[in-house]
């Protein structure tokens, strides 16, 4: 069923808050097998809200509203839906009792506007608010279309949707097959490069469908199909998965919706009982921060050193100051020594070192974006040179992703 | 002028990413004095995108599009606007040369689809992309309405909008009194705490208007008014600024739209000719990463050490292993020693150390969220204890902000 999410609130239109409700609802509706065609945001304005409802009703089957159910004059969702659907506004008796009980429990005087939160269009089914005052509700229109109103505060919205809204929608869904997806992750390959290789598949896509999602230094490909069950889905998805991975096998690192390279690295090293040290010059804490974001990182990451000023590379890591001056801070030699020194200092199995020119200006004759990533292990020390593009932050992020990817590849190639 | 933001991308409709672009643009457009009436999100679907453009053109004067300008078949914004406005698609010569030069510089083969990123509707003014490949553009319709297309990656969108999009819109604005704003920054105070104190001001707001923007560990208050000139604005804004600062003077750190605590710290230390070392346990690279994001940081930040495993606090920083075991890794004693050791190792004027329980589980009998921040300076070593709430990432971010704020306060109190 085609679905539209209408977020109500002037605070969204002035950029005061991020619309996380639209993302949350989109994800959960997709999980249910509903197709979200539009997300719309309107302010606390009665006529524009009614217009948005009319536009949505003309193009989708299910409308989810979030926000505008509070006690103030600005909260107009109830009134807008009543006008749009030509229904009177009524007070829900059960909800009214809850609101009154709430204020009695707190021994606080209840102002009358609070009872607005117990109102709903006549004929709408109330959705209880277990952690707040404003009730939600679902109204079915004569043509079978559904309008569901949920409160704006994210925790109230989520609790109400999970406990009452979602089951309601699920029961109303026509008998379709559920959606199954596979998420394939690639790193170290540009989005356009992978897109070019994928193009024939994307052009022919029908079932399963293919979508490509890129972020700095990473690409994820999603394959989706509807099927009776996991086994049928697997039979439909597996050949396409194999084919997509074969397009760039050297850059593929794994499958799973919430999989990340950091997660894989930490898990793999924990399994192997191995440890890691980081020596980050230009990435300066970015690799450490990313890895520490993964619970369990403390079993793996022993030490990080950020020898940000060149002299610190000599003083703390013991690099030969003369040779450092001769080769320059951004060089193969320095990356190699940094990695080795980190491994020695931390007594770790692995060490990764980064040194690069993040910009905005060139350094020691090296261009902006030039980077050296060093990897130290008992089997030896390896350095790769890269040149990446972007502003200061993007360069640092790309080098971080490349360093994680190279470490992961080196681990795979190393038998324990 | 009435404005609509259309975000393009199926990844938004399936809930894969949060729409931060809509928030960013809304805020910047409001700053310019444009009224955002609608935010709309559509997927990578040509017909629905054209329909969204038609609907927007029927109700607003300015349409801002974000996303759909990349190199793949899924990137349909160019084509949709061409069909909607009945214009042919042409290749921008300047942009084409940039794309080709980019691949030559990297010595990488360029696939043809990359040239799609240099295309625009005929007659549209190109907006350069200084940190990416896809150009943006502005098209003026025969009826005077404006369509501006910006790339989806947030950093590219922001850079392009600030450098080229915003000035373009500003020049096209009708002659109204310009909007003047003041941005007051607070750290170390909870958003709801500050909001409660601000409530009487917000309720009575008319001119100047007040808006509150909160992020983890930081709150910004914006005061705005329309005036003939800066002097008139200052007279209207100053009394309110003073009153707002008086609500939480100990937590106020400065005024300015793009001001950040990191920027203030780096600038202040550069001016004083002083240097800094970081010893980050639980924040693990987060403080370093934030400071290094500020150009010029290399003059100030000498060294970062992330002694993530407790044993490293002894081995690399020289902390007494027995006392460390006695006091525990998360303790006043350890934060104090870490800060001192960092200052000694880096020969810096200042050192900041963090140690905390980031969760998900308690540690050595200390609850999740307990933190110690150590500050070392020639005048002595100081440690503050905090208990903060949130998940792992939020706790780490709050401690990072608190550490920056405490360092800044300590610097202010120290005469050179």
TrEMBL record, chains A, B:
SUPFAM superfamilies, sorted: CinA-like, Molybdenum cofactor biosynthesis proteins
InterPro entries, per the entry: CinA (IPR050101), CinA-like_C (IPR036653), CinA_C (IPR008136), CinA_KH (IPR041424), Competence-induced_CinA (IPR008135), MoaB/Mog-like_dom_sf (IPR036425), MoaB/Mog_dom (IPR001453)
Domain of life assignment: Bacteria
Domain MoaB/Mog: 4-171
UniProt xrefs under Pfam families: CinA (PF02464), CinA_KH (PF18146), MoCF_biosynth (PF00994)
Membership in a protein family: Belongs to the CinA family.
NCBIfam families xref list: cinA_nterm (TIGR00200), molyb_syn (TIGR00177), PncC_domain (TIGR00199), PRK00549.1 (NF001813)
Protein name (record): Putative competence-damage inducible protein
Source organism of this protein record: Candidatus Carbonibacillus altaicus
Gene: cinA
């Amino acid at each position: 069923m085609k679905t539209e999410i209408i977020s109500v609130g002037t605070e969204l239109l002035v950029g005061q808050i991020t619309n996380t409700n639209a993302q949350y609802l989109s994800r959960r509706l997709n999980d249910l097998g509903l197709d979200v065609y539009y997300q719309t945001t309107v302010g606390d304005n009665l006529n524009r809200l009614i217009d948005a409802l009319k536009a949505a009703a003309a193009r989708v089957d299910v409308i989810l509203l979030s926000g505008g159910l509070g006690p103030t004059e600005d909260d107009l969702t109830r009134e807008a839906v009543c006008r749009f659907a030509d229904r009177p506004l009524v007070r829900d008796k059960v909800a009214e009792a809850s609101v009154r009980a709430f204020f009695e429990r707190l021994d606080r005087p209840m102002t009358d506007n609070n009872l607005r939160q117990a109102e709903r269009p006549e004929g709408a089914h109330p959705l209880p608010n277990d952690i707040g005052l404003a009730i939600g509700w679902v109204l079915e229109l004569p043509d079978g279309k559904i309008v569901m109103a949920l409160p704006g505060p994210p925790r109230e919205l989520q609790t109400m949707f999970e406990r009452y809204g979602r089951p309601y929608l699920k029961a109303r869904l026509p008998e379709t097959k559920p959606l199954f997806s596979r998420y394939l992750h690639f790193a170290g390959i540009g989005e356009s490069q992978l897109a070019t290789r994928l193009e024939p598949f994307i052009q022919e896509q029908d079932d399963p469908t293919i979508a490509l999602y890129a972020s700095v230094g990473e690409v994820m490909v999603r394959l989706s199909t509807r099927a009776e069950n996991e086994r049928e889905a697997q039979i439909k998805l597996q050949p396409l998965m194999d084919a997509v991975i074969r397009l760039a096998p050297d850059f593929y690192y794994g499958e799973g919706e919430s999989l990340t390279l950091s997660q894989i690295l930490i898990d793999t090293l924990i399994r192997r009982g191995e440890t890691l040290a980081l020596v980050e010059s230009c990435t300066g804490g970015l690799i450490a921060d990313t890895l520490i974001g993964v619970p369990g990182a403390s079993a793996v990451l022993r030490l990080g050193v950020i020898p940000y000023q060149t002299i610190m590379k000599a003083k703390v890591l013991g690099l030969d100051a003369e040779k450092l001056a001769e080769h320059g801070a951004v060089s193969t030699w320095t990356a190699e020594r940094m990695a080795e020194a980190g491994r020695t200092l931390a007594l770790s199995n692995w060490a990764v070192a980064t040194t690069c020119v993040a910009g905005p200006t060139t350094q020691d004759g090296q261009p902006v974006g030039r980077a050296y990533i060093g990897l130290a292990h008992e089997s030896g020390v390896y350095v790769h040179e890269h040149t990446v593009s972007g502003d200061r932050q993007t360069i640092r992020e790309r080098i971080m992703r490349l360093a994680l990817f190279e470490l992961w590849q080196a681990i795979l190639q190393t038998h324990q």
